[in-house]
Predict the structure.
Amino acid sequence: MATIKTIVFDLGGVLLDWNPMYVYRDYFDTEEKRTFFFEKICTSDWNEEQDAGRSIVEATQLLIAEHPEWEKPIRDFYGRWTEMLQGPIHGTVEIFKQLKDSGNYRIYALTNWQADLFNIALVRYNFLHWFDGRVVSGEEKTRKPYLPIYKTLVDRFSIVPAEAVYIDDNLRNLHPAKELGFSTIHFQSPEQFRKELELLGVF
């Protein structure tokens, strides 16, 4: 097993707690309406178009034109976006700090995030400035799980995948990293994350 020299973090769901349910859990008068809203209107695919570079204004107006009867909940998706961003996942941030303080690793971020919204997180959370570099989908106009964004990360920061580990809470996003030769960790909790790092010889 190669020695790990580089660690790459996903952000949402790993270091930051972001979840639309913080806004929409009790938003609708029935669970069926909420399910319909996320399965048919503000879908994951729609949101990921913004992660890949489309403006939130354009996305919102397009969706309202298609579904005018849902205008308020559509507007609230980005209008109340900061309420969906609840803060750090403290156990993971503590692991990040220990890795950073050790001086043994280069540490990067690879995230699907709309560029303007990512700037809000940069203002709020100082630990997002600890990375040696980052690749943000909204700035690159592509996103995970498409291979080019992983190659951008590797090329920009001269990463040797065989000496690197990539961490993501979305299993789908681990497959391209594996294809390039990264070790991968499917993040589920800070405790599980630490144990898997130990198995890789980190810590």
